[in-house]
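Tokens help. Consider this.
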Amino acid sequence: MAFDDDPDTNWNAKNLAAQWIAVTLDDIYLVDRIELVVAQAPAGPTTHLIWLGNGSGVRTRDTRLTDIHTEDGQTLIVDYDPPRPADDLLVHTLESPSWVAWREVRVFGALANEVDVSSEPHLLKTERIIENLVLPVQVTHARDGSGRLFIVEQEGRIRIFKDGVEGDRPFIDISSQITCCGESGLMNIAFSPSFPSNRQFYLSYTDRAGDLVVSRFTAATDLATADPATEEILLTVSQPHHDHNGGSISFNPLDGYLYVGIGDGGSDDLPPHESQFPDHFLGKILRIDVESSQSPYSIPPGNPFVDVDGYRPEIWASGLRNPWGFAFDPQNGDLYIPDTGHSQREEVNFLPWDRQGGDNYGWPTIEGTRCLKIPGMPVPCHQAAVFTPPVAEYDRARGCAVVGGVVYRGAEFPHLDGRFLFADFCRGDIWSLHQPPPPEGQSAGPVSREGWRADLVLKAFNIVSSIGKDEDGNLYVVVYQPGAILKISRN
């Protein structure tokens, strides 16, 4: 109905920003122009994000119109050269002096027909290499040159495989000291950057009391097993609920610090607000120095909230719901954060290395591009401009929960180099996400092209709990049930 060619029609959100209008096209088009006819009183500065879907099922942030003066009847024009493939358009207004409204949304372009609008000429395939696992949630390596795969099972075991053959004993078994399952249990392993010499690694798990624990362990001299008795508890976070316990952990390859992702604690009722509380760990990513001489850890001096009253200095990012499977680019330290949605949106956030933390991703005020308007919110929707918007999102019709994730830097798939791979837990679709360089000669100004793009690279048709890689950069899909590891390969 937004294509009614009647400028007198007022499509009104009946509320202040942040609000959105979305248009689903009937096919994939090569779009060369978008026109937005403003309905606004009073006139004043506004900020908008234009999101595009390209047929992959994921919308990505494409164009930002920052602090532009708009008034009733004005037409905002965004031209695309070259044209962009699109089957889905969403205009997300972040700031406006009035209710968010539009008189007309116009999309110009040509039907793509048989033009290949995907940057992936063919979908990849998988090969089942390991079976008979019990609720696996992670596959990784130790950076020790051994060629081993370490597979984390949620019930508390870590099993070792090499060339598809399992070792004689588990690497470690802490099943007697955890709570499982659902969204509790053994979550993640992160090996020290100096593991071959110091033999140390870190686990995140839900203990018998239901609290999230991050601990350090020491492997045996042959690096083949580890004794649970070597545990040194570094961090315990009380969990108010059995959902969204989080627990992803990873070392940044550039700074050597341990990053800890923690969910918002979950709730059977309205979403909890702890993600916006600066004195709480829930709904945050923490950055801590676990390999200094200080016990249990030290605070990196570059953390954004060191010496800021009211803030826990460990906090690196906030406003998250359940950041499962965040990942660093091993080449440049950029951070990708998939964050599981509430009821309508699944999102992926991005924190470039040079921004050095402190971003707030908006939960529970914002779910992707959607404002929840929950009573008593610490940061209401009309202040949404303080949040960092995601770079990709998809609707719940496309799946149930976004999971991560690795940044690919291997040799087998050159077209995936530098891309973040993520998946949906229920549907099994796997996408690659990247930001192509801007066109040459693009000038800075109120209209800036961000050009994020997501491509569907694989349909796993399984319940996918994560994506991992080995030391050579080969990619693996972790199938939660029935427990298995799939290796991604060429067609």
Q: What stands out?
A: Residues 7 and 103 are 5 Å apart (CA to CA). The chain has a mean pLDDT of 92. The chain is about 0% helix and 45% strand.
